[in-house]
Structures are given as structure tokens and as C-alpha cells.
């Protein structure tokens, strides 16, 4: 069997993504109320080890992947790139070759997406994207799982994105084109998502449009989602903050969405910038379920990578 890397959502495709989401929901329900460190009844990854490499900070990705592997019966090795030889110049290729002799799968969070591709190219074990400057597919697996929990189905749902056209939006656009939901992304001039990503989503038949007006984007939306205006590795530029000011998610903006609309944010949030407390802490916010679902969704991503799903 070819190695199942999870570099972006299209690597898996809609059938496997649906299988992962179904499995995630079933596993979550099956272990409701259990101590979090107790393995699932079938412990399907017993005897397997996942190595996690972080070139950027992380709270959710780090802990949810570690716990995901434990709940599947496996083990983890968590490393900051700065304390590895990669941090003083050992190549990605050599690191991939060596780690492929020790562990059964790799997750990497890095800046340049090409480093992720390079790692997958040289690894002989599955490689998972734990965020790059270009995409964050594991986050959007959790987001889709949360939509299914809240609304019963994903296809046909209307998502509105407000703010910076960043890595998370890229994965949402890709997901929309694979799983049949629509996206209206409101971004200021100069901070739009990659034309290539939006173009590819369109070629797949995805209903993904970039607009200027936040009110137009949220009209009738089921999901309203935003993210930090300054992603990891970017400058805290005053002109960027000023351009994004009108895209702040406020109660007034939420009133333009569907009355049952849900608010999402991948976290960490910059309260008072991209979103105000009244929304992120308000009754429409699903951010804690969304964060929890990182754990459940990634368990199924791991099972797919290990050939145990789909
Ligand atoms: N949402 C997310 O990826 O969070 P961390 O940066 O804490 O991993
Ligand atoms: N867009 C953010 C997401 C953090 C989880 C970043 O890349 O920093």
C-alpha cells in the first residue's frame, strides 16, 4: 500500500474524510465519561509510536495529538525543532530518513509548506501536517466534526470567514470543495487567501468566494469563523491591524448571520482584535467543543494514516 500522508485534505479525499468524521464521532461517543488517559476499548494503535516535531508554538495540536495517540493505545515522542539537530542545520530529508527507522508516523508543525512536502518525500512512514504557513488541515477536520455534531450534516452548510486570508482559511476552502459546503470569505485588500487555493477549490466545483464586505459574507451563514489577524511568524504590522479592523466579529455582525449560526475560532484568540468577548464567550460560540474535537478528529486521521480506516 502507498504511504498515507495527511499533508492536506485532498490527500485523503471526500470518502476517506467522511469515514474519518464518522469514526471520530463514534469513538467520541463510545468513550464519553471515561478518564481521558484510558485507551479506547480496541486500542487500535497499540505498539505504535508517533513523533511530533514543532518548529512553531502549540498548545492544542501538541496536547491533542499526544492524547489522541494514547487513547488509541500508542505512544508519542514530542520534540521542539530547536532542540533537535534540525534546529542547527540537519536536513529535513536526513531527519525524515532517520526518524522513519525509529517511529511509525511523524507529525510536523513548520513554516514553509515545502518542508512538509520534503519530509513526506523522504519518509517511509506517514507524515501529518500539524500546520504550515499554507494550511492547517487537522484544524478543519475538527471544525467539520463540530458542524456535524451541532447541525447533523456538513453538506450544504454555509460558512462565513472574516479577516485574514490565512492558512486556516485555505484548509476551509479546500474542505468546502471536497465536502460540499459553501464559503464566503471577507478579507481586506492585500490580505486575501491564495488565488491558487481558491482557484483549485473552484475547479473542483467548490462554492468558495472572496468578498470585501463582512456583512455580505455573513448573510444567512450557519458558521461564522475567524482567526488571529497576525499568524505565527508574521510581523505585528500596524497597517495590517488597521486594514482588518472592520472585519472584527461583533454581536452586530453575528446578527446578520442565520439566527442559529455558530461561531468558530481555532484558537488562540486575540480578544478585542478579531473577535470581541461578547461573541467568543456568547451563546453562539462553539470554541470549546471545536478545541476538544481536535483530539477526536485526529484519532481518526491517525487511524486513516495507519491504514485502519477507509
Ligand atoms: N488551533 C491550534 O492549532 O492551536 P495550537 O496552535 O495551540 O496548536
Ligand atoms: N493562523 C494561525 C493559526 C494558529 C493555530 C497561525 O498560523 O498562527
> End-to-end span in angstroms?
13 Å
Instruction: Give the biggest beta sheet.
Output: 5 strands, parallel
Q: Rg to the nearest angstrom? A: 19 Å
CATH topology value of the largest domain: Rossmann fold
Number of strands: 9
What is the CATH level 1 assignment of the largest domain?
A: Alpha Beta
Can you offer a commentary on this structure?
With 310 residues, the chain is α/β, with parallel strands linked by helices. It folds into two domains: 9-136 and 295-305, Rossmann fold, CATH 3.40.50.1370; 137-290, Rossmann fold. Helix content is 42%, strand content 14%. The protein has twelve helices and nine strands. Helix 2 links the parallel strand 1 and strand 2 (75-80). Helix 1 crosses helix 5, helix 2 crosses helix 12 and helix 5 crosses helix 12. Norvaline binds at residues 131, 166-168, 227-228, 231-232, 266. Norvaline is lined by residues 131, 166-168, 227-228, 231-232, 266.
